[in-house]
Amino acid sequence: MSAELAIDLRLLDPRLRDWGFPRWGSAQAAGLDLHACLNAPLVLAPQGPPALIPAGFAVAIRDPHWCGLVFPRSGLGHREGLVLGNGTGVIDADYEGPLMISAWNRNPGASAAIRIEPGDRIAQLVFTRVTRPALSVREAFGDSELAEEAGRRGSGGFGSTGRR
Known about the structure:
Blueprint: E1 8-11, H1 15-18, E2 32-35, E3 42-44, E4 51-60, E5 66-72, H2 74-80, E6 82-84, E7 89-91, E8 98-105, E9 114-116, E10 121-129, H3 145-154
Antiparallel strand pairs: 1-4, 2-10, 3-9, 4-8, 5-7, 5-10, 6-8
């Protein structure tokens, strides 16, 4: 990890050491592999409710210019339909509780269930910078060329800048 940020981890599940945690999948991987710290296999039914799966550790980012983002593993999502129940998880710099992974089987109802074994790598944690701009509430955006373009782009509502 870059010397510009130091993050503390507290292992809550001793099996993580045996599973090789913490580690990135390769020297250039962006995401830290997250394991399913389950005591027994978990079966996710297609289109069933999401399950909260412990990642087995707590993280202390502490620097308000950084956060953690929990993403699904792309291969599991594409091939098997295992995605995060909340899309992407955000770990704020001031959160120091246990990490949980919301897992969901997005497959259609007639598809097979997804079985998650204890120790399976099911998600990844990416650390990224956070920018918190100064916000100004305005009645209108003004007459600048940029404001005119933004007004044209937004005049059609949500999704109006897509296909023509």
